[in-house]
Amino acid sequence: MTTPADIDVIPPRGDRPRVLSGIQPTFQLHLGNYLGALRNWAQEQERYDNFFCIVDLHALTTLPEPEVVRSSVLELAALFIACGLDPDRNVLFRQSEVSAHAQLGWILECHTPLGWLERMTQFKSKAGSGRERERAAAGLLTYPALMAADILLYDADYVPVGDDQRQHVELARDLAQRVNSMRGEVFHLPQPLIRTTGARVMGLDDPTTKMSKTTARSKPAHAILLLDPPDTVRKKIGRATTDTNPEVAEPLGAGVANLLDIHAALRGLTHDEVVAQFSGASYGALKRAVTDSINETLAPVHAQYRMIRGDEPWLLGMLAEAAERAASVADVTLLRAQRAVGLR
Ligand code: TYM
After folding, report:
1. If you measure from the C-alpha of residue 202 to the centroid of ligand 1, how many angstroms do you get, rounded to a whole number?
2. Given CA atoms 291, 294, 299, 302 in this order, what sign does their dihedral have?
3. Are 156 and 13 in contact (CB under 8 A)?
4. Residue 144: CB within 6 Å of ligand 1?
5. Domain 213-306 has CATH 1.10.240.10
6. In this structure, what DSSP letter does residue 38 have?
7. Residue with the nearest Cα to atom 9 of ligand 1?
8. Which of 281, 275, 284 is nearest to 250 (CA)?
């Protein structure tokens, strides 16, 4: 039985390290989301005690249409499972159904120096400058404090993400240390878990910018979407930017390096192995190989997705049950944090 004194200490760890990660339900997921996050979560699910979150509160920072939020949440829940996450082994839940996220988010916002938030790369790029920044939602600025709450509520050891989220996970860690030094051992310190291939998939049309949902919405040639049919994948890869070399040769242009990285990540090869395999190959041959590796990976995902997405009552039931399991962990941490700051 939990006694009041127990509430103030971090609960003992189970056998397996704890993992938490999240994806925003905005627009369709792309290959970067798959290679930087989803695929890795599924491949490693046996090793960890897993919490994966559809971060619908975060999605509100861009003010999407309510109907888009509702349908994207279900699409993402179905994609989690279609990409191989077992709902019995992983807690696959929706952030807004666990009220502790918003509550701890506020406590952490109050402990976050404004300068930390203003320095975040994602805030600077998403909020723009001048007039555009004045109109940007305040939630874009405070977003990393809510993300820190997502992570810290579950006493997560690891946060498997793509490279673009490294700075946010580091902020969560800094924030945990700051609160711990002010108020005692409230939070467990998390670490980012980032792979060496596929952690930063670049835009197909412009390999100097990372593949992103925002750009994919206005420029279809920018990204492979996880639900793209095989022919669309072939056309998009066929049009992907390469460079002016006649064949694959070092030094690699950014577009060629990106295609090689995608192929390496999908086939489980290292950077050196994939460079050796394609050295001297024509760009046509490289693009055919990349197209095949993407389509072979996505075929089973599409088949599973079609089976699951139509059953909305089942998806909603699964999310509701997972939210209860998530809340049973998150509420303990929230209470500990509330007591530490004087709210209880
Ligand atoms: P989001 O929704 O933008 O992206 C979800 C995951 O996909 C990864 N990713 C990429 N990986 C490789 N190449 C790319 N081009 C690429 N684009 C995206 C991201 O790194 C991420 O792992 N703030 C987060 C969501 C979030 C979260 C959390 C993550 C909220 N709370 C707690 C971890 C823990 C985001 O916007 O991810």
Report:
1. 14
2. negative
3. no
4. no
5. yes
6. I
7. 33
8. 275
Name the residue with tokens 């699951």: 308
Pull the structure tokens for residue 114. Answer: 């404004």
Query: To which residue do tokens 């530490």 refer?
Result: 340
Q: Where are the domains of the chain?
A: 18-199+312-341, 213-306
Residue 272 CA to residue 276 CA, distance in Å, equals: 6
Asked whether 10 and 147 are in contact (CB, 8 A), the reply is: no
Q: Describe the strand order of the beta sheet including 191-193 as a list of residue ranges.
A: 90-94, 49-54, 18-23, 158-160, 191-193
- State residue 312 phi and psi, 5-degree precision: -65, -40
- Indicate whether residue 160 lines ligand 1 (CB < 6 A): no
Residue 242 gets which letter from DSSP? -
Q: Which CATH architecture has domain 18-199+312-341?
A: 3-Layer(aba) Sandwich (3.40)
Would you write out the chain's pLDDT as a tens digit for each of its 344 residues? 556 667 777 777 778 999 999 999 987 899 999 999 999 999 999 999 999 999 999 999 988 999 999 999 999 999 999 999 999 999 999 999 999 999 999 999 999 999 999 999 999 998 888 998 999 999 999 999 999 999 999 999 999 999 999 999 999 999 999 999 999 999 999 999 999 999 999 999 999 999 999 899 999 999 999 999 999 999 999 999 998 888 999 899 999 999 999 999 999 999 999 999 999 999 999 999 999 999 999 999 999 999 999 999 999 999 999 999 999 999 999 999 999 999 98
Q: Decide: 159 and 19 in contact? Cβ < 8 Å.
A: yes
For 152, the token pair is 């810290």
The atom of ligand 1 lying closest to the CA of 160 is 22
Cβ neighbours of residue 143 under 8 Å, at least 6 residues apart? 58, 61, 122, 123
Helix (H) or strand (E) holding 261: helix 254-267
Helix (H) or strand (E) holding 85: none
Q: How far is CA 161 from CA 124, 165, 266, 331, in A?
A: 20, 6, 16, 24
* Other Cβ atoms closer than 10 A to 31: 26
